[in-house]
Give the backbone structure.
Amino acid sequence: MKLNFYPRNILIINFGQIGDVVLGLPALKAVREKFPSAKITAMVGKSGAEIVEISGFADEKITVDRVKLRDGEKINSIREVLQIAKDVRRRRFDFVIDLHSLYETNFLGFLSGAKHRLYANRENRSLDFLANFSPQPPREDKKLHLTDHYLNVLKPLGIRNAPRFVEIQPRTEDLEKIENLLPARESKKLVGLFPGAGNPSRRWSLEKFAETSGNLSQDKNTRAIVFLGPEEKDLRAKIEKEFPSETVIVDKLSLLEFIAALSKLSVLISNDTSAIHLGAMVGTPIVLVMDKRAPTTYLPLAEKVRLVNNDTIDRIKTDEVLRATGEMLENKNW
């Protein structure tokens, strides 16, 4: 498809969480490759801003703290939104692509003054009358994987068959920071464990993670490392008590340090949470412990992901996870 315009200053909006931003990287890269001479600015939520930065697919970023806007005092939130709108208009974008497409982001794109506006077509979520790109993207199909949904938004641009997964390298400075935290100089293979998850229904029991760590510790060729994010900080005392003494516990990492640490692992065993997206993004083999009832439209599309599931997450056995981990460790292609 031949476009009759050549945008020079593009705004791409994705207000999703960390996993959403990672799954949106193929779309961001596709726009970068479609318009190599254009200046691209990504507007993202605070949690995903650094991911966009290290991807290299955007020239600039605008970071919006959606939680603060949602939970703060109404008058302050309104004042902040007006300030964001003023900043966006000042930048004189000529093309806005709204991948996430919420009422507020559609209005923001309209207020930007951009001549061309391409919005994800989401039933009951987007204000299609504020978009003006022709043809419109296909209506959102909730059965599609999220990455495919994002790429569908770009179809009116003539973008077809774009890669559905991209791998990102951590920053050198972050890799250097974690060298003293991980036993990287050992000859053992490092197996990460991430026991957290935002929703309790997505958490494999801590006791089974402990049992898994115990089995790994019996293998002289592996070293188990438990990672704790801010939401799991209260688990440290229990882990120190119930996990083998050889288990390394790493917490208080920044997001970029965590990404760098994940890249050093031979395998990551994790619940269905943002850690799997960050690990897959840097090429780490993933063993994902997951309830069969959970949707698969948000999972990483990387080749090196092994799903271990059952009717309910509590029915998944330690032996199943260990077997999958062993197969990942023995795979010579990785």
